[in-house]
Every structure is written in structure tokens, then in C-alpha cells.
Amino acid sequence: MSLPHLATLGAIFLATVLVPKFLRWRSRMAKLNAIPTVGNSGIFSSYTSARKFQNHALEIIQEGYEKYPGRAFKVPLPDGWHVLVSGKDMIDDIKKANDSDLSFQEAITETLQTDYTMGLAARIDPYQVDVVRTPLTRNLAAKFDDLRDEIQAAFGDEISAKESEWIKVPMLFTVMKIVSRTSNRYFVGLPLCRDSDYVRLNIEFTIDAFKGATVLRHYPGFLKPLVRHFLTNVPACVARATKHLEPVIRERLRKEEEYGTTDWPDKPNDLISWLLDEANTTERRKNIVFEIVSRILLINMAAIHTTSITFTNTLYQLAANPDIAQPLREEVQACVNEQGWTKAAMGQMRKLDSFMKETQRIIGVGGLASSRMVMKDFTFSNGIEVPAGTILSSASYSLHHDGVSGLLGLPIYDLNILTSIPPQNVYEKPEDLDPFRFSNMRTKEGEGFKHQMVAQDPSYALFGHGGKHMCPGRFFAVNELKALVGHVLLNYDIKFENNGGVPPAHWDGVTVSPNRTASVMFRKRPAKA
């Protein structure tokens, strides 16, 4: 081929491929540049701010929240820009947006690399969400005795406290084992929920999936299958889960074939059955063992992670504030005396609900909520435009600590950069633990449901700000938590050694977990005569 022909082909390639890409990139960057930056925004200097974000995420988010109230700002990350919003109007815009504009699923796919950590089918056909939303939630009352039985058994095995002495219990990992057992008593039943390897597997998978996602995000798409296989523990976890679950799944399938129906005699009422019922098409029955196993792992990850964090945070606050225990204990005892250990009794525990919600308001599970991937250029009702391909979130930690007194008392690394613009005045004394903050709100006329932990509340974002993407498993999680905390209140006294306070949480970027090494002292309460 002659040189002129090569030059012509090069010009065509430049005109048809590279120039349009450059113009789209420039248009996108122009829209991003119109959104104010917290930190450096230069091509190279932004990487300095991105590195700083890893250790100072809360301070940086809070700076933007206070400088740009009710607006958007962006922070630099190592692999791009993250746009954060605040204010009721912008949060409502996110809640009301169509998935074709702002996608919750695509944000989760990108953040957690779910195509590789959970399996592609769980994203393309997420029927596990319908299972969580409907049969898993609706069977709470019918299966509550199982939850209660496993809570008693798990505490008996994991916390061998006596009336005569205090024992020290390493909290977070002990809680994870108890929560794994309790959740899986509901999900897969006996004896599997008590199998020590299965319990460890479900705890480890959550950790391995998050670590794997971090690794996967650093590689291009064509390399990710190899990276998943060789550089993450995800395949090993799936193999372990399959070893435990495949015999059960195969036996259920054999029963369906034997009786010629999915509604065969004495069919277990559990997550495996609900998922098989939902997998009711030829397409969904392909590779059925892997599809059920991967979805059980996914549901376990969601259940164990958030519930363990919330339960541990609640126990830390109880241990640091023993005066709170008695009014909570009296409420739990009264509700149980009247209705037994039932879902109905859990619904009557307003003070306990408030205390758990307040505990999570104080610390929560991270700095951000309601993350979405912008699928096409999106304009908020206040005129702010965010370009396609951007991940945006709400600044939930700042919202939960937004009070009438100005700055939040966070260790801002450079106070000179803050402005005097007042916050949005959401909570009175937001840095104080007010255990009955929300139950007191519920005493007002018409407010009985609004301030429950499971309710949609624009000022509270543990389960999302509301809308169709609010966590579908929150009803199961909150009822399980009440049963867990209620059991502790009626059966144990707890405290920190030397009457210490709540140990500092562990922050990693915008994610947080309760202190991983702290122990709590337990002593068995005297049995009632």
C-alpha cells in the first residue's frame, strides 16, 4: 500500500474515531469542570487529592457539604471523579430518576465489580431481589421461631458467660458468627447454618468480595476474568459454597422431578426453595446450581455485612452507656410478656428501634449513600448538569451529622478552607447520642410510622433515601436486629473493661466498620424466678 493511501486511511481513522472520542471527552470534562471541586482539579495535581481522600474522606466530604449546601461538588479518586450532592431537592431528584438516567445497578456493578464477584446473571436477571422483597420478607412472622431458636443457640455457643463473673468477648468477629448463623437458619436451615466452615465462608466471602472488587477495578475489562481467577479469592469461596449447597439444591430438584411439581409435600420454606420457585423459566434453570449458589452468597453478603456492623455498633453504645439499658430492657420484657418472641412484638419496640437507628446515625456504614451511575447527561431540578459515565452519591454521613450549631466537630485537616455558610439544620445536637430521638418523634400525631428504622426518611440514609431502590431486605434486617439486641438486654449485663467509651471506628476511604479489635465484657443476668 502506497504512502498516500496510508495517509488517507490515517486521516479517515482520525476523523471517524479519534476526533469524535476527543470531542465527547472534552464535552464531558466541560460539564464536570462546571461542578466545583474539593481538592485539586488539575490533570496531575488531582492525583494528590485522590491519595489524600483515602485517609481524609470524611473531612473532604464535609468541606464540600458545608461550602456547597444543597448543591453538587466533586472529589477526585484515583480512577476518576465522584460527584456528591446534598439537599432535599437533589436527593429527591435521584430518588425519582428513571434507571435509564441514573442507574443504581450500574453503580453497584462498577463499585463492587459484581459481574466478576457475584456472577453476570445476578445483574442481568436479578430475580433474587424479588425473592428478598416478597417471600423472604413475608415469611418473617411464620419463621420467627427459627430465628429465636438460633439466636439462643448461637449465643450459648459463642458467649459462655456466667452469673458469677465477667468474661471478655472479642466483639466484631463474634457478632459476625452469631449473625451468620441466625441469618442462615432463616435462609438454609439446620444443620447447614451451624456448619463451622459454612459460617466462616459467609463471613470471609464478604471480605473477599470487597477486596476482589478493589483489585478488579484496576484492570481493563478484557483482563478481569483472569484477574478474578488468579488474583482474588472469589472462585475459591464459590467452590466452597457449592460444596455445601449443591447436594441440597440437587435434592430439591430431584423432589420436583419425582412429584412433577414445584409444590411437593413437606417442601422446606427457605431461601433455596424461594429462589428455585423464582427460577421458573428454561433460561433461569440453566446452570441452576451456580445461579442459586451465587445468589445465596450475594444475599448473605448483604445481610451479614450491614447487620453485623449495626449490631456491633449497638453493643458498643450499650457497653459505653449502661444507663440506656434499663428502659430498653423494660420495653423488650413488656413486649415479650404480651406477645412472645414474635414479629408482632418486635414491631412494638419503639425505644429499641429508635436506639438502633440513632446508633447508626452516629456512625453508620459509610460516608455516602444512594450511589448512581449517570447513564446519560442528567440535569437536576436546580440546573446542575452531570455528564454520562459519572458516579454520583449523596453525602449521607454529613447529612446524619447536620445540626443547628454549625461545624460538626470533625477533625477537618484545614479549617481555613471552610466557609461560614450554615448547614441544613437537620438534627439537634447531632454529635450527641440521643437514644430516644426517633421514638420521641413518633409520639407526635401522624408521625407514628415515619421515623421507624425501616421507613423512608429524607434525613436518614442507612437503607437509602427511599424510592424503588431502597434496601428490600431492611424489614428482615431490622427484625433480626431487634431480636438479637433484645436477647442481649434480657440475658446479659455488658460493659467495657475499666468502663471505657466507644472505641474508634475503622475508616477506609468512605467505608467504615466498628473497631475490629475491641472486646466487650459480658455477665449473665440472673434467671427470673
Automatic annotation (TrEMBL):
Belongs to the cytochrome P450 family. This is Cytochrome P450. Pfam families: p450 (PF00067). The keyword Oxidoreductase applies. Signal peptide: none annotated. Heme binds at residue 471. InterPro entries: Cyt_P450, Cyt_P450_E_grp-I, Cyt_P450_sf. Keywords: Heme, Iron, Metal-binding, Monooxygenase, Oxidoreductase. It comes from Collybiopsis confluens.
